[in-house]
Amino acid sequence: MCIRGSEQSLRRFLEGVDLQGIEALVLGTGGASKAVVYALDQLGIPHQRVSRRAGRAELVYEELDEACIRRHRLIVNTTPLGMYPNEQHAPPLPYAGIGAGHFLYDLVYNPEKTLFLIEGEKRLARIHNGLRMLHLQAEAAWAIWNNRPYSRTD
Predict the structure, then answer these.
(1) Contact partners, residue 147, CB within 8 Å, separation at least 6
(2) Residue ranges covered by each domain of the chain
(3) Cα 8 to Cα 5, 32, 86, distances in angstroms
(4) What are phi and psi of 77, to 5 degrees?
(5) What are the two backbone dihedrals, phi and then psi, of residue 20, each rounded to the nearest 5 degrees?
(6) Helices (DSSP H) in the chain: which residue ranges?
(7) Rounded distance, CA 117 to CA 97, Å?
(8) What is the reported pTM?
(9) Across-strand partners of 77?
(10) What's the mean pLDDT when you consider all of the chain?
(11) What is the second-level CATH architecture of the domain 2-13+25-145?
(12) Ramachandran sector of residue 124 (left: φ over 0; alpha: ψ -120 to 50; beta: rest)
């Protein structure tokens, strides 16, 4: 279900965007990151996962510099950083590398705008939170539990 919500909400968020040349960073290595990685694969978007610890992903946060951030125009936060009641936290990124050509997607939806999204918005990035994904997941779960077909495509 998380896969359906991730893929559909990412498609919607990136609707009308030429995905040619877009590369993504997926912040986190938990279950939600796996769903996002699957969705990115379906969209044909190359990606690298970022972890706090070496060996759990392709990159660790300490390896990220402004050049890396500029190259990866889609950044997806799959960690709980910034979630209520710890809104003062954000992924440790060199935010100065983010600009108007970036897309920041945070799976967190409470608060509506996390510090991660606020930092991106300040730098004119297009931002999106995880509320739409939550709704899409709920619709998919309802269909499964009620033995109904799930055919949502948006």
Answers:
(1) none
(2) 2-13+25-145
(3) 5, 14, 28
(4) -90, 115
(5) -60, 125
(6) 2-13, 31-43, 66-71, 115-122, 131-145
(7) 14
(8) 0.90
(9) 27, 106
(10) 91
(11) 3-Layer(aba) Sandwich (3.40)
(12) left
Q: How far apart are CA 22 and CA 15, in angstroms?
A: 13
Q: What are the structure tokens assigned to 94, written together?
A: 């060199």
**What sign does the CA torsion over 138, 140, 143, 146 have?**
negative
> If DSSP codes are grouped into helix, strand and coil, which group holds residue 147?
coil
Residue 139, burial from CB neighbour count under 10 angstroms (0-12, 13-18, 19+): middle
Q: One-letter amino acid identity for 3?
A: I
Give CA angle at 117 (114, 122), nearest 5°.
Answer: 125
47-99 pLDDT, tens digit each? 999 999 998 888 999 999 999 999 999 999 999 999 999 999 999 999 999 99
